[in-house]
Specification:
The complex is a heterodimer of chains A (996) and B (461). Helices cover 9% and strands 48% of the residues of chain A. Chain A is mainly beta and 996 residues long. In chain A, the strands form 10 sheets. Chain A has a 22-stranded antiparallel beta barrel. A 5-stranded mixed β-sheet of chain A has the order 10-15-16-13-14. In chain A, strands 3-2-5-6 form a 4-stranded antiparallel β-sheet, with no helix packed on it. The chains are: A mainly beta (996), B mainly alpha (461).
């Protein structure tokens, strides 16, 4: 009989045992007295309001007033009071029996050493003791530094060592990839897990229906070339209190089989119990403008025009005629704005945070833009000493129109049509509003942009609740039981209406296309955890254990109609209609246990393990185990300039689950003149398909300098990924094209460093700076099958190759040898930066603050396929320039040389160096003096006026529109393919922040 | 005990129970929602599954024939140009080359059909709902299409050795490569095995064939299609006497409609495909100018009827230094079918075989039947002092214009691929003609054959 290990039994036995072994608590019936006092800042002597004050060893506590004073009823006898406020170091003050008044000074926690950082599924430790390189970002870094950032991810550029944040298109409304410590999967996802207030939320990228119109290789509902934004863009950055980023398994192991790419933990704002309500208003207004164009060729003579566009060009070419179609299409500067209102506060037992957002980001391309409305209500309720309930709810409505960009096979997408739209033809509308046809191609991009109606609308609700019970709290131990539950639901509609009178619709034989993509997604999860902390003198031991269940459901339906009757846009009004539907479901169950021991506030040792099961594995009952261990030690008593050095080491394992459907061998159904047709779909899976496993070893040193004026963190890590999920192209003779299986190992090594310093610190002049540095190298260490090409790239135009001993993210292409023969599969450079540096500075002089953030990524290439398409039509701006390159043949122009070295012969010609330095953020703000402010209205507490710019400057040798774009969205390996993207923009904003 | 600690005990017990419930309510199951799985065909297949798989073969061959032979070899044979400004690889890949292993033409698709064919053959054997005759009929049907697919792959990689024994676990050892001559023989053997199955296949298939196969939709009439495929294979092998002995079993009939034969349908129904070559869809395929230019004149001075019928003039269009002035009329509407094998092809093969056997008079006689009735041209005299093969190839080019890449295949068979107006004229100085594709990169990687000559790019000439 097979021995079965059922995790459910262990979990339930534990909780029953805990329930029965409750120790009696203390009774509460003693004499009391009152203590009053005031809290002030140690440096400025200004009062500090809303400080949390509690009595050691009891549940008693209060919140200080805004003027720093407080009043608290305490038990008779000697007491010790603890004073806590985020941004300040905690202070414990003894108040002996006879004393009834106390003056307290708090010092600022500049480096955030006392910030509580996540150290397990439900536990946290102070940053000073943390054994992992967890990056933390505060609300200020997100919102104050990046006012009116399009989405939350947009505000992360250059701020997190080890994170590569790139927007894959210039379109408004998001669409960003975050790679933490490189790419650790080939066909699995490379994006981190996002957890908001304990709930795992969806970051899906859904098809908008565009592919059906423009006929990029149509993969139906799993299309990634649609250029739609991924859903983490729905969050309102203003609602975020803090973000903690766990970069790899050594930190994230406790999140188990979904955490190989790291975890981004987002905590939203909450009110404070007993605090009076505080209002905050932010109003921004700004203007975007195009940051870079491809450039159109000027045809100086009729002969040149005819040579490029054929004999018909003679009828259109005129001396001096130059129409800048790019400027016409993408030259808009729409006024954009953002309004954010929030109120936070609480009564004795209740706290609330209510916020509302209204945002409109205009797009630089005609008929594109992004609007978002969001409302949030976070409530907290204390049940005396028993515990606390918090409920967070958020509703978002986001509508995006991103236009028709990226790859297509029909010359409809704007920059796919642009190469065949010479600059001597006027494509602007006629006096009566109609558009001329483009005589040299199938579409007039100006007409397409003006007439096509395209948008994606998302209605989303994220709700989570957490019941925190503390049945035992005393000097010796605490026991906390936490019950959490949450859901993330959204409905996504992608509508596209391409009216029949468009030039290209007339050629399609079935004029008029309308498509309606409807998707719903529901994530639900529920979890239970227990945390027991034991205080034994200098030693603090925390034991935690828990279980959680998660389910993700999605259903996407795509309706497309062609040959629309009388130009109506309903999808049932076409003579040719097609419907496709795709559903998926994944259910996961996991459980964990962890032990953390902190000795003398100096030595922290942690060990834990997690077990996971998933419906996506070939065997859903099999449990996969993910252990972790870490230790850190603070060395103090050091000579100047060091205050302390922390040594840390961590180890952890996590997994990357197979996606829904990969384990099935399917048949494709089709219709053949009314008869059902079944063919093998081409992909099949190994019978033991299971999650990838990633093991990470991380070590680091954190140097804190005297007076906390600077901190330097250095981290090195190695990730060993085994059981890589690979999707091998099977050789055609097998009759299949793809095999999903686990068959390889990969290794990543990297270095991260972060330096935070306050070189000048004074009352009226202050300069702080923050620099991050990261580098990462990866290599396939073992591959049990022959080398293969991962999906989603363009073959000889620059692709990738998974081969033992080589970097999987290296570009691979063709090269022509000196005797004219062509060598295939030559490695031609990196697709990910050799290193990245983020450099941010904040200078404050009296009431004025200056902020700048530079982002430098060096040493990588991008395939400029847009440039190639322009060259093929002889329409690239420098096509006719004389060629001075040594590779030129006599008399050749630049364009002719590039065409001769066609990418299938020499791919390098279009794999350009895309290293860049971008000025991402620049701002100047004025803190309105309190006196002036309060003379307007006494209730105002603070106000700030900021003039800021985003992406104002870029320095790059890349000749395409932007070095960060890619055609394929969130692909793991295949990135860096520039195919007719939406152009990048820069924007300038004026923002008013008011609190009262 | 105080009230407070009682409350604590109660709440903890409650949570323990909740944990129990939580832990028990997971089944972790997610079935395949979106497509049926292969199990439908491998274990106890029903008639609907068998029918689906059979039609699947027809659908696959439709794509392979139209895309590979009509369109792809149409360009190779300088019958057509594919001019797409947004996809320049269509011009360069087919006319300039070199042909690389990353191109998977004539490999992946035929072998996928062969895999589906094997699945159907095994399903037929495993289907208890079919009678023994129906099982044979189904197998004969599958094997006929499989043989066609083998031939397509073999002929476009001639003279490379080919994988033949491919009915095996896709993740296991690959099929060994079999020399070209033996591969062709395998095709012939498979066609004969299929013929035997069809002959014992009873009166009807256990599934309905699509309208394009009207007249060929029973085992005995479908056998004629099988024999016609064999004739074509034999003809390209130059086995003239075998051609003559097999022709009578086909549907060749000089007194019947020349266009008679099995067709592949297209419709605009949801889930079906429309004809990709249809004018109504804005097809990018244009006629090579020489088709109109070189059409022979009739006695009244007008051009060959086939040129008039199949070509229509368009305003001159230039892309990448290639100018076209005509497009095709064969496929206008989105639902226009494409022919698979036509009566006139068989008639012309007969003439060709007679020429090959030295029976010149019979060849001229059969040739004139097509020449006068299909082309409206004056017959050629007997004896003929000119190049009779050139006339035969002319008739094939015009009667089978854009119907199967026969211009290319014939030019290759007779080594008439020179750069001159009578053979395969190159439009630009760097244009090339290719005799075969290389092995695919996936195949080369998987077999560790990357240094083999068959895996190198094919430069053409």
């Amino acid at each position: 009989m097979r021995e079965s290990f059922d995790p459910r039994r262990i979990v339930t036995t534990f909780f029953l045992a805990a329930a029965l072994a409750v120790l009696p608590g203390r009774a509460v019936a003693q004499q009391t007295r009152v203590i009053t006092g005031k809290v002030v800042d140690a440096t400025s002597a200004q009062p500090i309001g809303s400080v949390q004050i509690s009595v050691v060893g009891t549940q008693l506590g209060t919140i200080g007033e805004t003027d720093g004073t407080f009043r608290l009823r305490v038990p008779a006898g000697d007491v010790r009071l603890v004073f806590r406020l985020i941004g300040y170091r905690r202070k414990v003050v003894s108040v002996p029996e006879g004393q009834s008044s106390v003056q307290v000074t708090l010092t600022q926690d500049v480096l955030g050493m006392e910030e509580i950082v996540v150290s397990g599924r439900a536990t946290g430790v102070e940053k000073r003791n943390l054994a992992n390189a967890v990056s933390t970002l505060t609300s200020d870094q997100l919102v104050k530094d990046a006012p009116a950032a399009s989405t939350m991810e947009d505000a992360l550029h250059g701020k997190v060592a080890g994170a590569k944040v790139s927007s894959f298109s210039g379109a408004p409304g998001g669409g960003m990839s975050i790679e933490l410590r490189g790419v650790s999967s080939i066909i699995g996802t490379s994006q981190p897990l996002y957890v908001v207030d304990g709930v795992v939320v969806s970051n899906a990228q859904l098809p908008s229906g565009q592919a059906g119109l423009v006929r990029a290789a149509d993969r139906g509902p799993q299309e990634h070339e649609d250029n739609s934004a991924n859903r983490i863009s729905d969050l309102n950055p203003d609602d975020i209190e803090s973000i903690q980023i766990l970069k790899g398994p050594s930190a994230a192991a406790i999140y188990g089989a979904a955490a190989s790419n790291g975890v981004v933990l987002i905590t939203t704002k909450h009110g404070q119990f007993g605090a009076s309500s505080r209002w905050h208003l932010t109003q921004s207004a700004g203007v975007p403008s195009i940051a870079n164009k491809v450039g159109l060729r000027k045809f100086g003579s009729q002969a040149a025009a005819v040579d490029a566009f054929g004999p018909d060009a003679a009828t259109y070419w005129k001396q001096g005629a130059f129409f800048d179609h790019e400027q016409e299409l993408a030259g808009n500067k729409p006024l954009s704005f953002e309004t954010n209102v929030s109120v936070a506060g609480g009564l004795d037992n209740t706290s609330y945070y209510l916020s509302g957002l209204g945002k409109y980001d205009g797009g630089i391309v005609t008929n594109t833009g992004y609007e978002k409305e969001s409302a949030r209500l976070n409530l907290g309720k204390k049940f005396g000493s028993l515990g606390q309930l918090s409920v967070n709810t958020n509703y978002v409505r986001a509508k995006t129109s991103r236009g028709l960009t990226n790859n297509d096979n029909y010359s409809i997408s704007y920059w796919m049509a642009m190469p065949s739209a010479p600059s001597f033809v006027d494509l602007r509308p006629n006096a009566d509003g109609s558009f001329p046809d483009n005589p040299f191609s199938r579409s007039n991009p100006l007409q397409t942009a003006a007439l096509v109606d395209q948008y994606e609308l998302v209605n989303r609700f994220i709700g989570s609740s957490s019941l925190d019970l503390t049945p035992i709290t005393n000097d010796k131990q605490t026991l906390q039981v936490k019950l959490t539950g949450g859901l993330d639901w959204f409905a996504h509609t992608g509508k596209l209406y391409s009216p029949p009178d468009l030039q290209y619709e007339q050629t399609l034989g079935q004029p008029g296309t309308s498509s309606n993509a409807d998707g719903t997604s529901l994530f639900t999860n529920a979890g239970l955890s227990a945390i027991h902390t034991l205080y034994m003198g200098d030693v603090q031991a925390t034991t935690s254990a828990g279980a959680e269940y998660q389910r993700r459901d999605a259903d996407n339906v795509l309706n497309t109609a062609n040959n629309l009757i009388d130009g109506l846009s309903n999808v049932d009004k076409g003579t040719n209609t097609s419907v496709t539907e795709y559903r998926s479901r994944t259910e996961d169950f996991g459980f964990y246990g962890q032990e953390e021991v902190l000795i003398s506030q100096k030595l922290l040792v942690t060990a834990g393990i997690r077990g996971d099961q998933s419906s996506g594995d070939a065997d859903p009952t099999k449990i996969f185990w993910y252990p972790k261990a870490s230790a850190s030690y603070r060395i103090t008593g050091l000579p100047d300039p060091f205050a302390e050095i922390k040594v840390r080491a961590a180890y952890g394992q996590s997994g990357n689950e197979p996606e829904f459907g990969q384990k099935f061998s399917l048949l494709s159904g089709a219709n053949y003149n009314g008869l059902q047709s079944l063919t093998i779909s081409g992909s099949t899976a190994a019978s033991d398909l299971r999650p990838e496993k990633q093991t990470e070893y991380e070590g680091g040193l954190d140097f804190t300098f005297r007076n906390e004026r600077a901190q330097l963190s250095v981290t090195v890590y190695q990730q060993d990924i085994s059981d890589l999920l690979v999707q091998r192209n099977l050789p055609g003779s097998t009759g299949y094209s793809l095999l999903y299986f686990n068959g390889g190992s990969m290794r990543q090594r990297g270095l991260e460093a972060a330096l935070t310093a306050v070189p000048v610190k004074g009352r009226s002049f202050n300069w702080s700076t923050r620099t991050t540095f990261s580098m990462n190298r990866s290599k396939i260490t073992e591959l049990t099958v022959p080398p293969f090409r991962p999906p989603n790239n363009f073959g000889g135009l620059g692709s990738y190759r998974i081969e033992q001993g080589f970097d999987p993210t290296a570009w691979v292409g063709n090269d022509t040898t000196s005797n004219g023969s062509i060598e295939q599969n030559v490695r031609l450079g990196r697709s990910r930066p050799s290193f990245q540096v983020g450099f941010s500075n904040d200078i404050r002089w009296k009431d004025i603050t200056f902020h700048a953030l530079l982002d430098w990524e060096q040493g990588f290439r991008v395939a400029n396929l847009t440039g190639w398409l322009f060259d093929l039509s002889k329409n690239r701006w420098d096509y006719a320039n004389p060629c001075n390159d040594p590779a030129c043949q006599p008399g050749e122009t630049l364009g002719e040389m590039r065409l001769r070295l066609y990418p299938s012969k020499s791919t390098l010609i279009w794999l350009e160096d895309a290293s860049f330095l971008k000025l991402r953020e620049l701002s100047l703000s004025w803190n309105v003096p309190t006196a002036l402010l309060q003379s307007i209205w006494r209730q105002f507490r603070s106000a700030r006026l900021t003039l800021s710019g985003r992406d104002l400057l870029r320095f790059t040798g890349y000749s395409g529109m932007d070095p960060e774009v890619t055609d394929w969205g969130l692909e793991s390996i295949s990135t860096g393919q520039d195919v007719a993207p939406y152009p990048p923009s820069r924007s300038v904003w004026l923002t008013l922040d008011l609190s009262f | 005990m105080s009230f407070a600690s009682d409350a604590r005990r109660t709440s903890l017990t409650a949570f323990a129970l909740l944990a129990l419930t939580l832990a028990g309510c997971q089944s972790l199951d997610a079935p395949s929602f979106n497509d049926p799985s292969v199990e439908n065909l491998t274990s106890a297949p029903d008639r609907a599954a068998i029918a689906g798989a059979a039609i699947g073969l027809v659908q696959s061959e439709r794509g392979n024939w139209e895309g590979g032979f009509i369109a792809g070899l149409g360009v190779f044979g300088r019958e057509a140009y594919n001019l797409r400004p947004e996809e320049p690889r269509t011009i360069t890949n087919a006319l300039v080359g070199p042909l690389l292993s990353t191109y998977h033409n004539f490999w992946d698709a035929p072998y996928a059909l062969i895999r589906n064919g094997f699945t159907l053959v095994h399903a037929a054997d495993a289907a208890t709902t079919l009678s023994s005759a129906e099982q044979s009929a189904t197998k004969g049907f599958a094997q006929t299409f499989m043989a066609q697919a083998y031939w397509e792959a073999i002929t476009m990689h001639d003279p490379l050795a080919m994988p033949i024994d491919v009915d095996r676990d896709p993740a296991g050892d690959l099929a060994p490569l079999v020399a070209s001559a033996d591969s062709y023989q395998h095709v012939l053997d498979l066609l004969d095995e299929a013929a035997q199955n069809l002959q014992s296949g009873g009166n009807s298939f256990p599934f309905t064939l699509p309208p394009g196969f009207a007249g060929f939709d029973t085992p005995s009439t479908f056998l004629m299609v099988n024999r016609a495929i064999k004739v074509r294979v034999l003809k390209y092998m130059g086995r003239w006497s075998d051609v003559m002995s097999t022709l009578p079993a086909t549907f060749m009939d000089a007194s019947a409609d020349f266009q008679m034969g099995p067709y592949f349908d297209y419709t605009t129904q949801s889930g079906d495909a429309v004809n990709p070559l249809a004018q109504a869809r804005g097809s990018n395929y244009f006629a090579h100018p020489r088709l109109w230019r070189d059409a022979q004149l009739r006695s009244d001075g007008s051009r060959d009827l086939r040129a008039q019928r199949n070509l229509t003039s368009v305003s001159p269009y230039t892309l990448d230094n290639i100018t076209v002035t005509e497009e095709f009329n064969n496929y206008i509407g989105l639902s226009d079918p494409v022919p698979f094998i036509t009566n006139v092809e068989l008639l012309l093969i007969k003439a060709e075989a007679e020429y090959g056997l030295g029976q010149t008079s019979q060849a001229i006689q059969d040739l004139n039947v097509v020449r006068t009735q299909d082309g409206g041209l004056d017959p050629i005299p007997d004896p003929y002092s000119g190049d009779l093969l050139k006339e035969i190839l002319y008739e094939k080019r015009y009667s089978l214009m854009f119907k199967g890449g026969f211009t290319y295949l014939d030019a290759r068979q007779y080594d008439r691929m020179g750069d001159n107006p009578d053979e395969l004229p190159r439009a630009r100085s760097f244009d090339k003609v290719f005799t075969r594709y290389p092995y695919t990169d996936d195949e080369c990687d998987a077999r560790g054959m990357n240094s083999d000559p068959g895996c190198q790019p094919v430069p053409g000439s």
